[in-house]
Amino acid sequence: AHLDRIDAVDDRVHAFLHVDAEGALEAARAVDAARARGDELGPLAGVPLALKDVLTQKGIPTTCGSRILEGWRPPYDATVTARLKAAGVVILGKTNMDEFAMGSSTEHSAYGPTHNPWDLERIPGGSGGGSAAAVAAYEAPLAIGTDTGGSIRQPGAVTGTVGVKPTYGGVSRYGLVAFSSSLDQAGPVSRTVLDAALLHSVIGGHDPLDSTSIDAPVPPVVEAARRGATGDLEGVRVGVVKELSGEGYQPGVEARFAEAVEVLTSLGATVVEVSCPHFTYALAAYYLIAPSEASSNLAKFDAMRYGLRVGDDGTHSAEEVMALTRAAGFGPEVKRRIMLGTYALSSGYYDAYYGSAQKVRTLISQDFANAYAEVDVLVSPTTPTTAFRLGEKLEDPLAMYLNDLCTIPSNLAGGAAMSVPCGLSDDGLPVGFQVMAPAMADDRLYLVGAALE
Ligand code: GLN
Fold this sequence. Notes:
Blueprint: H1 2-13, E1 16-19, H2 21-37, E2 48-52, H3 79-86, E3 90-95, H4 129-136, E4 142-146, H5 153-159, E5 162-165, E6 186-190, H6 193-203, H7 221-229, E7 237-241, H8 251-266, E8 270-274, H9 282-297, H10 318-329, H11 332-345, H12 351-372, E9 377-381, H13 397-401, H14 408-413, E10 416-424, E11 430-437, H15 442-452
Parallel strand pairs: 2-3, 2-4, 7-8, 7-9
Antiparallel strand pairs: 1-3, 4-6, 5-6, 5-10, 9-11, 10-11
Helix pairs in contact: 6-7, 7-15, 9-11, 9-12
The structure holds glutamine.
Organism: Motilibacter peucedani
GO molecular function, one term: glutaminyl-tRNA synthase (glutamine-hydrolyzing) activity
InterPro entries: Amidase (IPR000120), Amidase_CS (IPR020556), Amidase_dom (IPR023631), AS_sf (IPR036928), GatA (IPR004412)
C-alpha cells in the first residue's frame, strides 16, 4: 500500500531519491513467512520506513543529496539501519535532503527540491525535508532523520509531523555520513509521539562502533509516551525560554505556542519563564563550529575513494582530478561551508573564530544547566515561522540560517529535543512546539509531547 502511495504522489512531493520496491517487498514477505512459522517477531516487524539518504544501507545507493556520491553503493549497514532490519522494519527507500545535510529547505539537494505536502509551492524544511514529507504525505508511517542544527525538528514543525533529536550519543552515528561530528544525531520522524518512542527504542542504545555512543540503557521513552497520553503532567516543571520569542516570530506561531503552554498548565504542569541569555549567540557559534567540522569531514571526498571522478583522462595530475571532481561534485552551499570552515580553522584565525565559538558553546551548556536546576523541560516554538515558499530564501544564506534559531542550542549542548505539532497558524500551515530536556532525559520529551497531542 505504501509503495502504491509513493507511486501515486511522489512525482509531486519528491520525498524519495531512491525507492527500493523489490527489497521492501522481500523484507515484508520475510516478516510474513516468520509470522507463519510462528517465529518471534521484532518489535516493529513489517512496519514500513523511509531512510534519510545520509545513512548507509548495504548495496543501496547513498548520495547524501550530492553529485559527488552519485553511483556509490555502501558495502555496509549503518548501525541504525542494521537495528531497523533486526526489528523487522521494511525500508522503503532513501529520502531527499539538502546536500550533506546543509540547509533548512531541502532546496540544496543536487537532485531537486522536495515539496511540502501541505502546499506544494512551499518548502518541507531541511535538511531532512524528504523524511518529513514522506511521513506527512502518508508515503511512510515512520522515517529516520538526522539533526545537526534542527534538521529533524524544523522539517517536523513545517510538515505537521513529530520529530525527535535524541541526546547526543544516544543513537549510534556509525554509518551516518558525517557533517559535523560533535553535533550530528539520528532520530525518529513519525505522525504520533508514541510511534516516535517505539522507533527511538529500536534505534537507540550503546554501540561500540561509535566512540561517542553513551553506554547506558535507552531512557524509558515508550512508558513516558503512554503516561503523557493520559494527560497527567502533575509535578512537571516547564520553562518557557524568554529569548526564543518576540521580534521575527510569526503572530500565528506565537498564538499556537501560547495555547499549547496553556494546555500544559491545565494538565497540572507548573509553567515559569526562564532566561537563557547566551542563546542569542547560538546561531553565530553554530555557523563557525559546524562548517569547521564539515570542512574537515568532507576532505575525504577526494575523487579516489567514492562515487564521482572528473578529469581522469591521463592528462591531469591526481591533485587536478581531485580539484575538478570537488568543483563539479559539490554544490554552492557545501562549497560555502567548506570555505567558511577552512577559514575559521586556519592558523591566525583559529582562536578568534573556532576557539571563541567553542567558548560560547560552553556558556550555552551552562545556560541549560542553570535552567534545568529549576525546571524539567524547556519549551519554545520549533521555528519562528511556518513553511516559506520555495525559492524565497535561496539567494540569502543568512535568512536561511535564521530558521535554526530555536533548534540549534540543544545541538550545541548535546541535550534531547522534540518538535510536536500544535495546530495551524493563520495561514493554514502547521506550527511546531519544541520540548527540550537534559542529556539522557529523553523520556521527558515524550511525556510532555504525548500530553499535547
Ligand atoms: N539548517 C542547519 C544547517 O544548515 C541544520 C542542518 C542539520 O541539522 N543538518 O546547518
